[in-house]
Write a structure and sequence with these properties.
The chain has 73 residues and is of the alpha/beta class. Helix content is 40%, strand content 15%.
């Protein structure tokens, strides 16, 4: 891929496997608590809120931070 890291609005198994195989850090997008918990399950701690404007951005992140404090956005 030739990139230092990958940013994606999703975290599909194929993309995760590619990034792991090529040692590319992945900044994957989430838009729900369930997606955030799935990211934790595969040891992802830095995520992109996608689409922040639609999800009330800061308020959504503050609520999620209370539930899942190990995540960083």
């Amino acid at each position: 891929m030739g990139a230092d890291f990958v940013v994606s609005p999703d975290n599909t198994n194929k993309l995760l496997q590619y990034c792991q195989n090529h040692q590319n850090p992945l900044l994957s997008g989430v838009s729900s608590v369930s997606e955030s918990m799935q990211a934790i399950a595969i040891r992802h701690q830095r995520l992109k809120l996608f689409h922040a404007a639609v999800l009330s951005g800061v308020k959504w992140l503050q609520g999620l931070q209370n539930l899942l404090p190990e995540l960083k956005f």
